Amino acid sequence: MAFTVTKDTIIGDIMDADENTAPYFMEMGMHCLFCPSSRGETLEEACAVHGVSVDDMIAKLNAHFAG
User: Fold this and answer.
1) What is the pTM of this model?
2) How far, in Å, CA of 37 to CA of 11, rounded?
3) Between the chain's N and C termini, which has fewer beta carbons within 10 Å?
């Protein structure tokens, strides 16, 4: 089964599924990917804090996981 990202997906779960997604988060200014607090945020929360469209991030990440 393919991994699907939604606005409610936890950052830690995305990173655990594929650490190669790190550049997507780094691009939006999220440089604390491996700290416990950021790993517990939802994608929507992280995008809101960093001023990034959650819909754009969902599209990028799901394209990544689709291969």
Assistant:
1) 0.89
2) 10
3) N
